[in-house]
Amino acid sequence: MQHFFLFLLLLVFLLPHETSYSAAAASGGGDRCSRRCGGATVPYPLGFSPGCPIALWCDASISTPILPYIGENGTTYRVIAFNSTISTVVVGLSPSCSRSVPEARRVLSGGNYGVSSRTGLFLRGGCGGVNASAGAGCSVPVDVMSRLLRTAQCVGISNDTSPAAVACVASRPANSTAAVNEQFLLWEKVEKQKCDEVLTSTVFVLTPEGTATLEFGVAELGWWLNGTCGTGGGERCAANATCTDVQTPNGELGHRCECVAGMEGDGFLAGDGCYLGES
After folding, report:
1. What are the boundaries of the signal sequence (predicted)?
2. What digits encode the pLDDT tens for the residues 51-74?
3. Do residues 113 and 158 touch, judged by C-beta distance below 8 A?
4. Mean pLDDT of the chain
5. Beta-bridge partner residues of 207
6. pLDDT for 83-137, tens place per residue?
7. CB-based contacts of 24: which residues, under 8 Å, 6+ apart?
8. To 10 degrees, the CA torsion angle through 157, 93, 183, 263?
9. Taking the CA atoms of the chain, what radius of gyration do you get in angstroms?
């Protein structure tokens, strides 16, 4: 009997244990979408159970959603903010000198989301197209790059850690009049720079006063649902919501639901729908 209990105890220690966020992501059942992460609730169609069209992981210990991907060094990417009006999420992308371009593309590109055209990427490490970075859509202030490089602690005898060795790639910022195919970052422009790593990123933000600002260390991801408004996508939208087609990064068409002006909510029948906000 003593050997039997020792065997059970050994199994407890040897069997794999789920992390807190993977266990939280698996909570909920059936076709319903569980959108709670600890004390936080995310807008539909995002959520943490198999019934959610766009799945996230949850770190319930700090009520924080994270992207469903773990980096090569065990890095996780936390979701900082949601915006149902323009169907975007903002994730943290802290400065790093060990995040390869392929890894950054994998973590920031999901089945139903991709990097928005309001996001610029700072690249480093063997960049062959640095001299053409001005034509890549943005320039790199030397003082900003110096701070980012110090924060990331980029070191190495064979690596050039000067600000001049950093390239910046961005697309034209999307706005309300942007074409349907201009809403996502073009990874082809990133790969043309022939850089090794994605140091960090910045998001172009237009304040209510009309002033353009840059937020560093974050990336904006735009999301969509499959199918067009004319092929049944519009049926997912709630009352007082409009359906809009969007060309996804892979060239196919998807759709989004958005509440009309003066209404708040995620715009989906299966979510919170649309409702009058506080005056």
Report:
1. 1-24
2. 999 999 999 999 999 999 988 778
3. no
4. 80
5. none
6. 999 999 999 998 888 899 999 999 999 999 999 999 999 988 888 765 444 445 5
7. 37, 38, 48, 57, 58, 59, 60
8. -170
9. 21
**What is the structure's pLDDT at 124?**
85
> Has residue 138 got a pLDDT over 90?
no
State how far the alpha carbon of 51 is from the alpha carbons of 15, 32, 34, 180, in Å.
Answer: 28, 5, 7, 28
The number of angstroms, rounded, from the C-alpha of 66 to the middle of its chain's C-alpha atoms is: 9
Cα–Cα distance for residue pair 140/164, rounded to 1 Å: 8
CA 9, chain centre distance (Å): 41
Domain residue ranges of the chain, discontinuous segments joined by +: 18-66, 72-223, 229-279
Q: What are the pLDDT digits (tens) for 102-116?
A: 999 999 999 999 999
pTM: 0.81
Q: What is the per-residue pLDDT across 170-209, written as a single tens digit (0 to 9) for each?
A: 876 545 444 455 789 999 999 988 899 999 999 988 777 7
**How many other CB atoms are found less than 10 A from the CB of residue 68?**
18
Q: What tokens were used for 267? A: 């715009």
Tokens coding 194 = 């022939």
Place of tokens 């519009």: 234
| CA 20/CA 26 separation, integer angstroms | 10
Dig out the tokens for 141 from the structure: 């202030």
- Order of strands across the sheet that contains 167-170: 167-170, 119-124, 197-206, 212-216
- Three-class SS of residue 265? coil
Closest to 185 measured CA to CA, from 76, 93, 81, 80: 93
Q: What is the largest CA-CA distance in the chain?
A: 75
Dist. CA 258–CA 4, nearest whole Å? 60
